[in-house]
Amino acid sequence: MDLCYRPLLFVRLWTRRLLASAVYYGGGIKLYSRLSRDHAVVLMYHRVLDDTEAGDTVHPGMNVTREVFAKHLEYLSKNYCVVTLDQLHEWLLGRTDCPKTPCAITFDDGWEDNYRYAYPLLNKAGFPATIFLITNSDWSMSNIDLGPGKGDGIGWDSVRVPHSNPYNS
């Protein structure tokens, strides 16, 4: 990485954190929730890493640690109605109702850590999530560099495992 780019990355990271803290602690999220009762939220994650894997290589906006993801789920449980994408679609069509703003959780690319770290936390919270898997056999997770565990996509054995939760039909 170019040494000139590193200070800029540091400034961008801390600017984002400062703005996020200002919005959160300043009540911006609660205000948004009140004003957006007729809107839904779709959260998209890429990776959920163990604290030991994350280190300094966590890319803001791409990776979160298990601890941070657990805090996200705790916040969602208090402030949102977490639903499947099908349930969100039904809500958007006006066929169902949610007591709070509906929220769907999604994961892009199907990294193995989605299953290893995110799934147990989601299951504990009773939340559904959708993982969009890469299925093209000519393309590999190792083609992109997102830090630790690169190349670790969810294996077909994990995809085929029947999960005992109420959102699987």
Question: Could you walk me through the main structural features you see in this protein, from its secondary elements to its overall organization?
Answer:
This protein has 169 residues and is an alpha/beta fold. It folds into two domains: 1-35; 37-160, Glycoside hydrolase/deacetylase (TIM Barrel), CATH 3.20.20. The chain is 44% helix and 15% strand. The chain is built from seven helices and six strands, in the order H-H-E-E-H-E-H-E-H-E-H-E-H. The protein has helices spanning 5-25, 28-35, 51-54, 66-79, 85-92, 112-125, 156-160; strands at 41-45, 47-49, 63-65, 81-82, 102-109, 130-133. The strands form two sheets. Strands 1, 4, 5 and 6 form a four-stranded parallel β-sheet that branches. Helix 3 (51-54) links the parallel strand 2 (47-49) and strand 3 (63-65). Helix 4 runs parallel beside helix 6 (112-125). The chain is globular. It starts with a helix and ends in a 9-residue tail after the last helix. 18% of the residues are buried. The model is unreliable at 141-150 and 162-169 (pLDDT under 50).
Question: Whole-number average pLDDT?
Answer: 76
Give a quick account of the main beta sheet: strands, pairing sense, barrel closure.
4 strands, parallel
* CATH architecture label of the largest domain: Alpha-Beta Barrel
Instruction: Write out the CATH superfamily name of the largest domain.
Output: Glycoside hydrolase/deacetylase
The level of helicity is 40-55%
